[in-house]
Every structure is written in structure tokens, then in C-alpha cells.
Amino acid sequence: MKFTERLLEHVRPIWHENHRHPFVQGIGSGTLDKEKFRFYMIQDYLYLIEYAKVFAIGVLKARDLSTMGKFAKLLDSTINEEMSLHRQYAARFGISHEELETAKPSPTTLAYTHYMLHVSQNGTLAETVAAVLPCAWSYWEIGKALNTIEGASEHEFYGEWIQMYASEEFGTLAKWCIDLMDELAEGKSETELHDLEEIFLNTTRFEYMFWDMAFNEAMWPIDE
Ligand SMILES: Cc1ncc(CN)c(N)n1
């Protein structure tokens, strides 16, 4: 069994809940309240700024030029392709780039990005990949699943979101992360594999929390 198959086996119930989450289901049916999506899109923009930095750490920790180049490509495509989708949605909501970049992160966005950055700054390359893998992989799976719903990818508002995450380009990068995880897991001890599993589980949990945070538009319980 490949290591990534073992990882997936471990978190399958959470991935199932991600697919069933009303936020994800609402994108698929096209009925998601646009205010909730607006909240998500701003928080996701802030999330992606920090997520892109993890790929920069990947460049730093890579042992060969090919891996460095792939991390650089992931960084570039996050900032210039994935985040351009968010900029387009922001324009539709009448939100400026400045407003996007200076928005305040929610507690979940802060906790998730800080955890990823902590693991990648302090851990090995394998640990860095384990931290970002659920992000790339689970979005690709969700994109593909929503893309099978008739008419969903042509929806006037949510269609582009589905097209982005179901796309071959996004899938190729997610697949590269999966293959790299398997490669890096080779020859590791059971203790090291268990540690990687724990990191993968934690960011998988954060993925679920992010959908929930967006659906509930959850900021700090007490405003300043
Ligand atoms: C929270 C989250 N996780 C993952 C992705 C996919 N890069 C995203 N856009 N946002």
C-alpha cells in the first residue's frame, strides 16, 4: 500500500464530512448564500497568501533542482492562477485588492496558517509536504466531485470555482504533491510515518473547520 493510501484511509471519515458539508454542497447545487461565499473568499485569500509561503519553504528545503522548480511552480500558480480566481470574485463583490489584502483573518484562518507555517519552518521536507497535502488533494477531490453534478460547472456564479479545482492543471499539481509524499515516505521508520500521519490528520481537520468557519461566517466571539 502506498503511504498516501494509508494517509487517506486514516482520514476518510473527515473527507466524507467535507464533501457533505453544507458549504460544499451549496457550491455544487448553486444555492450557497453569496454572503457566506464572500466571507469565505476573503478568508481564503488570506489563507492562500500564507499557504504560498509554505511552498517557498519547500524551495528552501528541497534537495534537488527539479523539486525546487516544482515548489516554485506551486508558489507561482497559487499567487497568479488560484488567487486570480479570488480577485475576480472580489471584483464581482466590489471589493478592492487593497481591501482583500488588509482584511483581518478569522481565528480558524490564523490557527490553520500558523500551524502550516510552524510545521514547515521547524520540520523536514516530508513534514512540510504532509502539512500542505490535504489542501491540494482534498480541493481537487471536491472539485472533481462537484464537476460531476449536472450543470454545476456552468453555474453563473459558482461554475468558475468548480472549474478551477476540477481542472487538469490543478490536478497535476495535486498529483505531484501526492507522488512526492510517497517518495519522501520511502525508508522512513514507523515512528516517522506516524508523525507524518498526525500532521496530515491535523491539516485535514483544519480543512473541515475552514468550511465550517465560512458557513458560519465565524470571526472572534468578542469584537474590539
Ligand atoms: C482552506 C483552503 N485549503 C485548500 C485550498 C486549495 N489550495 C484553498 N484554496 N483553501
From TrEMBL:
Q: Which SUPFAM superfamilies match?
A: Heme oxygenase-like
Q: Which Pfam families match?
A: TENA_THI-4
Q: A Gene Ontology molecular-function term?
A: thiaminase activity
Chain ranges of the Thiaminase-2/PQQC domain: 10-216
Q: Which InterPro entries match?
A: Haem_Oase-like_multi-hlx, TenA_E, Thiaminase-2/PQQC, Thiaminase_II, Thiamine_Salvage_TenA
Superkingdom is Bacteria
Q: Does the keyword Lipid metabolism apply?
A: no
Which reaction(s) does the protein catalyse, per the Swiss-Prot or TrEMBL entry?
Answer: thiamine + H2O = 5-(2-hydroxyethyl)-4-methylthiazole + 4-amino-5-hydroxymethyl-2-methylpyrimidine + H(+); 4-amino-5-aminomethyl-2-methylpyrimidine + H2O = 4-amino-5-hydroxymethyl-2-methylpyrimidine + NH4(+)
Named in its record, the pathway it takes part in is: Cofactor biosynthesis; thiamine diphosphate biosynthesis
Keywords per UniProt: Hydrolase, Thiamine biosynthesis
General function of this protein: Catalyzes an amino-pyrimidine hydrolysis reaction at the C5' of the pyrimidine moiety of thiamine compounds, a reaction that is part of a thiamine salvage pathway. Thus, catalyzes the conversion of 4-amino-5-aminomethyl-2-methylpyrimidine to 4-amino-5-hydroxymethyl-2-methylpyrimidine (HMP).
Record's subunit section: Homotetramer.
- Which family, according to the similarity comment? Belongs to the TenA family.
What is the designated name of this protein?
A: Aminopyrimidine aminohydrolase
Q: Which organism is it from?
A: Metabacillus malikii
